[in-house]
Amino acid sequence: MTKGHEPSIAGEAAKGGRPVVLQVVPRLVTGGAERGAVDIAVALAEAGGTSLVASEGGPMEYELKRGGVTHIRLPLDTKNPFAMYRNVARLAAVIRAHDVDIVHARSRAPAWSAAAAARRCGCHFVTTFHGTYNFSNRLKRAYNAIMTRGELVIANSKFIAAHIRENYRMDPARLRVIRRGIDLDRFDPQRVSAERVIQLANRWRLPEDVSIILLPGRLTRWKGQGLLIEALARLGDVDYLCVLAGNDQGRSGYRAELERLAQRHGLANRVYLPGHCEDMAAAYMLADVVVSASIDPEAFGRVVSEAQAMGCPVVAADHGGAREQIIEDRTAFLFKPGDADALAAALRHALGLSATERELLSMEARTHARANFSKTQMCKATLAAYRELLQAEASAELEAGARRPAASSSAAGS
Predict the structure, then answer these.
(1) Is 380 left (phi over 0), alpha (psi -120 to 50) or beta?
(2) Which of 114, 175, 189, 321 fits as disulfide partner to 24, beta carbons 3.0 to 4.6 Å?
(3) Minimal CA–CA distance to 224: which of 198, 207, 250, 244?
């Protein structure tokens, strides 16, 4: 095994009760798969089960430790076929050492290793399909198909469930739609102090008496930051500052491209790129409108639900999981994907709401988000899926046991 990546299994039998669930992700850096893994791991531990997460590691390890979850560091952030093959034995060792009941994979490359390890050890295998993934050729589609091989396949939105049914061969009886949930304790305007909002405004050096347009998300082309800048260039008579809050994750070239685009449109003083934001709840409180401008359809896109939970008007591209999260023109506004003119018109409309219209939208958006997109609902549904698998196994064992005596009696009487 690679030095520094050997799983610590000697003398580390998992603490807690049944079931024992091992979730597998490449790394623990901010992202949908990682956020889901952490939330479910902590929920299972709180419910009395045993949670394990295997990954390359990252800043979210702290959340696992705080939630009583064991993290096992393995070199899972790789697409190298030889490394993936070696990870089968590594994961199998973890499964046996911790007497794992269910392996839950959330990303394609480690899912191939996890599926083989689960099969080798005779435990259950579950997947969560987190995105549409690229399948420009048959080989790529076959690579993606591992995410449909779980005994249960969880789609994180109705959009993704439809995508799976349309593009992959699998028994639809194995498919479960469990929408991603947000932390309503964190994204609650009543819990965000004025001091936090003021501190963030000072850190970002936001001017007073201008509208704040916020696009949260890592700096990557498909998130649509460039499209938003093109739309901003069409808002010449609106007084605003646009904040593109997100880490470039090493994509310094794309960041520089966005800065040049803003400068070319004369918006260098109106577009601010502060990097990663640690206090997104306070950021939503500062925003007059939150934008989800993804060029490609997002599987879910929790920014839309987070902003609604905070009572902030949302403008989102009319595709993917965003459609499922809003009540159009009542909690948010949609625009034609990829269309800068349509985005500009939607922004102008959202920023032009009267105080009464904003208050009505805010109230309905908060109610809608709290009723439909809570982390509690997501965790409860996922733990129910785990129980479904184990109960089916127990029923099968009981049925098999009931048949054996009858078979023995028949043999004795012949």
Answers:
(1) alpha
(2) 114
(3) 244
- Global pTM reads 0.85
Helix, strand, or coil here: 331? coil
> What are the average pLDDT values for consecutive 10-residue runs of the chain, which has 414 residues?
39 62 94 92 96 96 95 96 97 98 97 98 96 85 95 96 94 95 95 97 93 95 96 93 90 92 96 94 97 94 95 96 94 97 98 96 97 95 96 73 58 46
**153 close to 176: Cβ distance less than 8 angstroms:** yes
Q: Which CATH superfamily is domain 20-178 in?
A: Glycogen Phosphorylase B; (3.40.50.2000)
Between the alpha carbon of residue 332 and those of residues 260, 267, 349, the distances in Å are: 30, 26, 11
CATH topology of domain 189-372: Rossmann fold (3.40.50)
Rg (C-alpha) for the chain, rounded Å, is: 24
- 3-class SS of residue 187: coil
